[in-house]
Amino acid sequence: xxxxxxxxxxxxxxxxxxxxxxxxxxxxxxxxxxxxxxxxxxxxxxxxxxxxxxxxxxxxxxxxxxxxxxxxxxxxxxxxxxxxxxxxxxxxxxxxxxxxxxxxxxxxxxxxxxxxxxxxxxxxxxxx
Length: 128
Hints:
By secondary structure, this protein is mainly α. The protein has helices spanning 2-12, 18-25, 29-34, 38-70, 77-84, 88-94, 96-117. The longest helix has 33 residues, at 38-70.
């Protein structure tokens, strides 16, 4: 009974809470708890959070690819993350392997840009 409702919530992307499940089922929150539904709801909340994080990371990965392939010239890590619209620390916490991919892509991109544009790379400039 609970699982069918929770599966439907997952598929539709509706936020899973005791309140939302009780409203959907037409019973009180206390009834849900008395029926032992809270642990199952908590499990499905975790599943939903994992799905959300996976989707966020997939979206970030797509934006990384787009940015690397469409940006002209060199780009700093700071500029890259700002343009991407995400915080590097957040990406590191959720998917450290993605920060490694980004770092390597930036290195390749900046080497290509340096040789293509032939000018002075701003990291090569020493300010006094």
